[in-house]
Amino acid sequence: MAKRGPNEGSVYRRRSDGRWVAAISLGWRDGRRVRKLVYGRTRREVQEALTRALRDLQMGLPLPTERPTLREFLECWLRDVVSPHVRPKTYRTYADLVRLHLIPSLGAVPLDKLTPQVIQAFLNEKLAFAECPQCREKIARTEFEAHWACKHDGQGRPRRSPLLSARTVKHMLVTLRSALNVAVRWNLVPRNNAALVQPPRASRPELRTLTPEEARRFLGAVRGHRLEALFTVGVSLGLRQGEILGLEWSDVDWERGTLTVSRALQRVNGKLQLVEPKTRAAARTLVLPSVALCALSAHKARQEEERLAAGSRWQETGLIFTTTVGTPIEPRNLIRCFHQLLRRHGLPRIRFHDLRHSCATLLLAQGVAPRYVAELLGHTQVSFTMQTYAHVLNETKGELARKMDQILASVAVRLAVNQSARRPS
After folding, report:
1. Is residue 269 part of a domain?
2. Of the ranges 41-55, 167-181, 336-350, which one carries the lowest mean pLDDT score?
């Protein structure tokens, strides 16, 4: 029988454990022979795996010579795929989920051994247990309050609850699924097992927005405040916090009364920097309501006074909203100031981002088409806007139905009058 040629592979049975092995020679690298080994319980199983591997080799697809762990792959994925292509804030979200949850629990698992069962068990454990931030003991979430009261009473409440929500656990699965999509494209695994796992059922948090009356009270509360224009722009245009803080005076067209959103202020590597918009749709030019235009005009005059008062301490950045010495506003300080205003004037406690939601709900309640609201907010798809504010749209549909009843009722009355007039006496 003729001897096998190079890269044809060989199949044999190991004497040590009786397992079948297929070996493919990939040549020489750094003075040593490199081989790809495939294991199986039967000769037929190994032969089929060998056939697939030889086919991939002939097509020019890479054959991994090592079995990377999930930790090694995720670190490579973050460094080579995520970091160069997403915004810093998005990268930080992915990196935190990988560092705090995925690697500690699944990092040692070989990538090709990450089965749907393993992933499902990981998600179930995250939902059922929590790690005590004080003693690092794993506690069932139903017993955490009793554990803290018994062992750590008098030490105050933990700064952040260790109990994870279903939404957070679902984000872990989404992150793992995104990473394994790359692993499939790189031919490291044959399929994305995370896509086969049932995600946790996460309910959407109920939006807390300002009513028309509360919105008017809010604008009255900020009147005269040095950041009156900032809060007015937030509630009237629905800009994101980073977009507001990244606005420059060159973005305002006073003649046309428009505002161009083309950047956002975010923290990158510990420093506040201007970054590109979140999406292509986020770069947009908006027509300023008169209330916002007047507030910006007054703010410009106030900033000139602060520049003169600061003298040599003033740092020119071109930003519209700055500190009293011209530097960018720290986002945490803005949120603290916002909550102080709400508390001082008896307004409901909402997040700063809820000003954006309030802007959308106020417009939709007035019957503005969702397409225009999506353009105002910088949403890529109108369907996302409609899904987010479905409750407002339902109320608007009810109002439309009542208006239709009024129209048809008047027609019905005229028809009834005409019919009665035509009846013979």
Report:
1. yes
2. 41-55
Distance CA 73, CA 114 (A): 12
Model confidence at 1, in pLDDT bands (50, 70, 90)? Answer: very low
Decide the pairing of beta strands 258-261 and 129-131: unpaired
Question: Can you read off the two tokens belonging to residue 164?
Answer: 């994870």
Amino acid identity of residue 419, one-letter, is Q
318 vs 130, residue with greater confidence = 318
DSSP-assigned beta bridge partners for residue 138: 131
In a domain, residue 375? The reply is yes
| Overall number of domains in the chain | 4
Query: From CA 154, how far away is CA 62, in angstroms rounded?
Result: 58
Predicted TM-score (pTM) of the model is 0.70
In a domain, 205, yes or no: no
Model confidence over 183-234: pLDDT tens digits? 998 878 889 999 999 998 877 777 888 989 999 999 999 999 999 999 999 9
User: Where in the sequence is the domain holding 375, given as residue range(s)?
Assistant: 212-380
Q: Which of 350, 357, 424 is nearest to 392 (CA)?
A: 357
Tokens 């959308």 -> residue: 360
Inter-residue contact 350 to 214 (CB < 8 Å) = no
The Cα–Cα gap between 121 and 59 comes to: 37
In the chain, the percentage of residues whose pLDDT exceeds 90 is 49
> What are the tens digits of pLDDT across the range 329-355?
999 999 999 999 999 999 999 999 999
Query: What CATH number is given to the structural domain containing 176?
Result: 1.10.150.130
How far is C-alpha 351 from the chain's CA centre? Answer: 17
pLDDT in tens, 132-153: 767 777 777 777 777 777 777 7
